[in-house]
Amino acid sequence: MRALSFATACLAWALLALMPAAPLQAQPAATAAGLEPLVIVSAGSRHTFQVEVMRTPDQRARGLMHRNYLPPDRGMLFDFARTEPVAMWMENTFIPLDMLFIRADGTIARIAERTEPLSRRTIPSGEPVLSVLEINGGIAEKLGIKPGDKVEHALFKR
Length: 158
Hints:
By secondary structure, the chain is an alpha+beta fold. Helices cover 21% and strands 34% of the residues.
């Protein structure tokens, strides 16, 4: 019995040694993806955000899901790599968001304000776009951001 207990303990210690210090899900996506500067020019004002850029299908599928907080000066920019009609949804997203649908030239085509958390309702771009910027719900209205305003980011300088 004692040999079995010792073997079990050794196996448990070996498994613990192989496990990462924290689960990967606990790591902030911002750390993995990095932050990039983005500016929205609206009525002569410049509004600066730090954004995570989602470039791969897996990154875009995950987006801001399962997060409980987004700092007011942060956002997530979805790079679709080509201009096409897109649709977003809020499944497993706990934070109300403003979704800014952005054309290839960096102009905002449409804004879906204060999207409903945890909803499966699709939110269409309304026209072909290159990207979508998600920021906290209500920020676009608070800053006076509207369709036609310009977004400055390296993505729009291709």
